[in-house]
Amino acid sequence: xxxxxxxTHDPQLRSWVASANEAGTDFPIQNLPFGTYSQGPQGxxxxxxxxxxxxxxxxxxxxxxxxxxxxxxAQSPAKLSALRASxxxxxxxxxxxxxxxxxxxxxxxxxxxxxxxxxxxYTDFYTGIHHATTVGKLFxxxxxxxxxYKWVPIGYHGRASSIGVSGQTFHRPLGQTKGxxxxxxxLRPTHRLDYELELGVLVGQGNALGxxxxxxxxxxxxFGMVLLNDWSARDVQAWEYQPLGPxxxxxxxxxxxxxxxxxxxxxxFRAPFAHxxxxxxxxxxxxxxxxxxxxxxxxxxxxxxHTQAMxxxxxxxxxxxxxxxxxxxWTVAQMLTHHTVNGCNLQPGDLLGSGTLSGPQAEQAxxxxxxxxxxxxxxxxxxxxxxxxxxxGDAVILRASCERSGFRRIGFGECRGQVLPARATQ
Length: 426
Description:
Elements: E1 34-38, E2 46-51, E3 54-57, H1 69-73, H2 77-91, H3 98-101, E4 105-107, E5 112-113, E6 122-125, H4 129-139, E7 155-157, E8 163-165, E9 168-171, E10 174-177, E11 186-189, E12 193-194, E13 197-203, E14 222-229, E15 232-233, H5 234-240, E16 254-256, E17 261-262, E18 270-271, H6 289-294, E19 296-297, E20 300-306, H7 308-312, E21 318-324, H8 332-340, E22 351-353, H9 368-371, E23 379-380, E24 386-387, E25 395-402, E26 410-420
Parallel strand pairs: 6-22, 8-16, 9-26
Antiparallel strand pairs: 1-2, 1-5, 2-3, 3-4, 6-7, 10-11, 12-15, 13-14, 13-22, 14-16, 14-17, 18-19, 20-21, 20-25, 23-24, 25-26
């Protein structure tokens, strides 16, 4: 891990932006995540970096010569690392850039945050083995994991057009469902609407069609990570998913956080990675010394629920669960490598979802499907409400942070989405 660290990770670094030095901020100078923003919803899009409660206009500061995040993401890791170093030096206490750059800062509360980049394609993986096991037990108690799970990073191609940024609202989706006592299916609003706690990997450098990415070079193609909520209509999913997998149950909305935390910023939180003893070890194309030594990334994850009743009563949201990316069964490098082993070409801005990230304990579940055991056990909230699945007005908030002794805590910001009532059935 030490080879991945540099001066930008120094825990003693402080910024002349006072809010970046406050305890608990997600965006200290050691983070410097990238995003796209405008001053007003219709304003010109700009590339910014979050620092404390501010955003720095990178083009105004002469740090980039483009307003297109995808162009920036396509640059080489060496150029991106040099850019990060320049931003860090300019924002550090005592920097000669302070007087000039102070005029290029805007409060995050005064800007409109957009999707950080153009997302051309979206693939959702299934790396959360505890989620896969719990859900599998609901349908196959004696064999919850299918035979391929521990051999291959399973995924499906999702819909990029319905991905929105934190703050997204969407109507409860309609879908075709069939109850156990119904002779024919019916088109109606889903009554088993769920969230999925995930991380997303945004591709930086792409690869040419027909040229796989070897695992030793895989992380050089990952620009950074965001929070991802892959909303799911479980009743629609149950009726439609065989034999070709998720379709309308998944493509009506997905929500990501607006700030891309770079892999370089995550370097202090790396950890060894290995499959449990007794499990199949990865095939050679999915294995490397670097992936074994530092393929894990310690990202602590949380799900919060804010119901309409809570808001009406002036109450804050309630935390439902916590988990950690360290419990994933496949790494960022393995997802990228497997995705391209057949020659598939990835492009800057493509999104790879981790799949639902649950922990080993029941209370660490990353979805209501797990917390309620398929709707059998209602979750009791502190205000007296109960939930098996999401109700109209519910807002789900995902949060994530990285902490390690000897380093500065960094965070991902917030990923928030809210359910609106269904539109009339057709």
